[in-house]
Amino acid sequence: MRDDLTLLAAKQTLRLRAGFPCRWSVWSDDGRGWYPHGTSPARDIDGLPYFHGDDVVLEVPPGRLTVRAARGMEYGHAQTTLTPGDGETLVELAPPRIYDAAARGWYGGDLHVRLNRPPQWVADSQHGEDLHVVNLLAGDGDTEDLWAGRNLPWSDATHVARVGLAQDAPSVPSGLVDKLRERGALIGYANAFRGPVETPEQLFDGGYPVFDARMSVVDAALGLVDSFSSAIGSDRAYRRLIGAGNRVAAVAGTAGRLGPIGGERTYAHVDGPLTAESYAHAVRHSRTFATTGPFLELSVAGERPGATIDLQAGSTVRAAARVIGPGVQRVRLLTADGELASGPPNEVAAELRVDWPTYVVAVAEGGGLVRAHSSPVYLDVERRRVAREEDVTFCLRWLDLLEELVKDRGGLVAEARRVYLSRLA
């Protein structure tokens, strides 16, 4: 049934208050959603109506209503059912906190939000979801250059909003990449692969190469990108890239997903206050994990994701992963050679003897879309980085298939091939 924005002769109103901005859902027994005047109807991935704000007033129909308050992945939800009386009914609900990432130095960002919503909607959504960083992607035809390099007006000490640039991968000239990097920009792929990636051929079974990350095998080898979307559906392709000697961060973003922004987030460990620059610096150095909800910590010999530890062959290190959040069924520690350890939620730990270069990542898995994936801690051996033969061969085949689809501007595919072949040697 469609959502109604107005009611004829409505006498009841609700005032919703949490003490901070939230995501509110109000629905009647017939499933109809109710919204404040002037608010566009929206439904989340579970089909619930929602809008953002605090101390908001809306007209509602006679009869029983359900009211829910939520606030992004660091919070649970509070819910009540009531029958409003005549006049105004005050509903005070506050969603409980599950974890406080910022207290640990971690800040969550959505790096892929299309610039196709009114600014006020984005501002309300960012604060209502307690999303620390939002990157609004302006396409070639958008005219938001006014705000390039500056925080958008609703930013504050714990919420930063910036405008970035979205371009089709094959159309980005290398000169532009160099200029963007000189200005401190993050360069990465926002659209992840979907579905299984057991073979290179599965990367090319569907879709259109302009709109996905197929070019990442080239740009990662040439050091032209900082990150790769890996939280949902792309983790195996991501591990092929890092196993072949590429060093790119695990990131995530909502892209075209249904529901509020921040449904997938890139958490980055920031030293000092949160700024666009400090967050970008952390992502650029792979101090990240990508998640749809769980808070995931990885420690290897006391180091966080993004660190490189140079060891002597035969050294032993301790790796541990810890997860907080509902829905997680299993936590895994993975190296370039496969699973090191796994177990139920909370903490998983293991000792690892390092005889050749490798990496360690942590993965949290659950039902539905519950998932998190860390960037690696790299374990070099006598200054040699990981370049697993199976992963390098995978990337070489990936290059062969790519070359059949795209025009190799400037010989980039050939140059990337030389890089991978040198790693085999």
Structure description:
- The chain is α+β, with helices and mostly antiparallel strands and 425 residues long.
- The chain folds into three domains: 12-92, Immunoglobulin-like (Sandwich), CATH 2.60.40; 100-292 and 387-425, TIM Barrel, CATH 3.20.20; 294-375, SoxY domain (Immunoglobulin-like).
- It has seven helices and 24 strands.
- It has helices at 119-128, 174-182, 216-221, 235-243, 276-284, 389-403, 412-424, and strands at 12-17, 22-28, 51-53, 56-60, 65-70, 77-82, 87-92, 106-114, 133-138, 160-165, 188-189, 227-229, 249-251, 265-269, 288-291, 295-300, 308-311, 315-324, 328-335, 338-343, 347-354, 358-366, 371-374, 377-381.
- Strands 8, 9, 10, 14, 15, 17, 19, 20, 22, 23 and 24 form an eleven-stranded mixed beta sheet that branches. Strands 3-2-5-6 form a four-stranded antiparallel beta sheet.
- Strand 5 (65-70) and strand 6 (77-82) form a beta hairpin.
- Helix 4 crosses helix 6 (389-403) and helix 6 (389-403) runs antiparallel to helix 7 (412-424).
- The longest helix has 15 residues, at 389-403.
- The relative contact order is 0.11.
Rg to the nearest angstrom?
A: 23 Å
| Helix content class | 10-25%
Compute the number of helices.
7
Mean pLDDT: 89
Structural class by secondary-structure content: alpha+beta
Q: Spans of 5+ residues with little confidence (pLDDT < 50)? A: 5-9, 140-144
First-last Cα distance:
63 Å
> What CATH architecture label of the largest domain applies?
Alpha-Beta Barrel
**Beta-strand proportion:** 25-35%
CATH topology of the largest domain: TIM Barrel
